Amino acid sequence: MKCLFKYKWVKLPRTLVPQGKGIMGDWVRLASRAAFRKGKSVYCGFQNDVTPGMWSGGMVGVKSILGRKKRADAQSALDRLVKLDYLTYTLDRKTKKLDYQITDWVMERSGAECEIGAVYTTCGYGFVCVPRSITQRLADQNYQFEEADAWLDLWCHTVCNDIDNIFSSMAPSVQFGRNGAILTLETLGHRWGWEKTKVWRFFKKHSDAFALYKLPGSFGCLIFNQLYPTGKTVTLPEAEEVTRTLNEIRSMATAAHFRGKTEQERLGKAVRWYSWQLAPQSEPLPPESTEQVESCQTEEESRVAVSPPIIRAYFSLCRNCKSCIYDCVGKEYTPAYRVYMTPQGPTMPIPSNIPFVIPDMPFYDL
């Protein structure tokens, strides 16, 4: 399974609700009980129309979802989420009916399997699609993270098998930003509003989910997500493998000069630039395809020029474009057209997607 950094959302199993205090823990509990398709829900014998990301019931049901004993505490949690624009809710004072709607609901998650069956998923079954930017809103407002907020923040920034992060091919790793594969406790503490010692205690407490790998010297650390759903059991890499990969990247970046205030920023850019060179090689071609390639190369090598061109024009064309005819065996572009000049212009149409200027010559090869 690939989970690239460019993907806008990640999967969070409903069995993994962030533990501890924090507004993100309340958001996950409410989102995991919301409807995943349009239909009718049944609550206390009443039927209510719901849309994706919506829940309809009463305040007693919200208390049960949030794990609150008092009604005032449950409503206070809802008000905090509304203030940060995480959801909206309506409460009827007479009937005590309460509806809430998740504002950051991911619509692309519903497939054909969701068209039938219950509107609400079974508690503790399946997964919730969490937007990667769900916790960035807290960081932008200088909100002091709590335990559940920090836990979900690491989860939302998990990548797996990303070509720009070679460490994510070893195990799902945490990455903040395009160049944020290398992290430090000070960086996380600044983001969460914590001291360095508190960040260290957090990783000690949640070592079953997030494994912290300290890099040699003062380069920083790597964080691997052991519970991320990849379809198989996550095996953490050995420390020697991580160190060897890091040294290879540093040796490749010896002649390069990366801008950055700290060593971690420069090393993070080097990881993004050179990870693709260390990525696992693709599978070889099947025997049939290999024979076809060899036969094509043989034909190309045995080509004979009928008449040498007077003037050959070469153009810097995109090799991925279908209009580009590139010699895979040699080192030049083969003539695609022969244009004869007349007083009225060229004798054949010239493709509009190949810009060039025709000189004053009798004819030449393109």
Task: Give your account of this protein's structure.
- The protein has 366 residues and is of the alpha+beta class.
- 30% of the residues lie in helices and 16% in strands.
- The chain is built from 10 helices and 14 strands.
- The chain has helices at 23-32, 59-66, 71-83, 136-140, 147-156, 185-192, 196-205, 239-252, 263-278, 287-301; strands spanning 9-13, 39-43, 46-50, 54-58, 87-91, 97-102, 127-131, 158-159, 173-174, 210-214, 221-225, 338-342, 345-346, 363-365.
- The protein has a 3-stranded antiparallel beta sheet. A 3-stranded antiparallel beta sheet has the order 13-12-14, with no helix packed on it. Strands 1-7 form a two-stranded antiparallel sheet.
- Helix 2 (59-66) packs across helix 3 (71-83).
- It is elongated and about 70 Å long.
- Mean pLDDT is 77; it is low at 282-341 and 349-366.
Alpha-carbon distance between the termini? 45 Å
Main sheet overview: 3 strands, antiparallel
Uncertain parts: 282-341, 349-366
Which outline best applies?
elongated
Query: Which range does the strand content fall in?
Result: 15-25%
Give me the secondary-structure category. alpha+beta
Multimerization status: single chain
Order of helices and strands: EHEEEHHEEEHHEEHHEEHHHEEE
What is the total tally of β strands?
A: 14
Task: Kindly provide the radius of gyration, computed on alpha-carbon positions and rounded to a whole number of angstroms.
Answer: 29 Å
Mean pLDDT over all positions? 77
Overall helicity: 25-40%
User: How many helical stretches?
Assistant: 10
Order of strands across the widest beta sheet?
Answer: 4-6-5
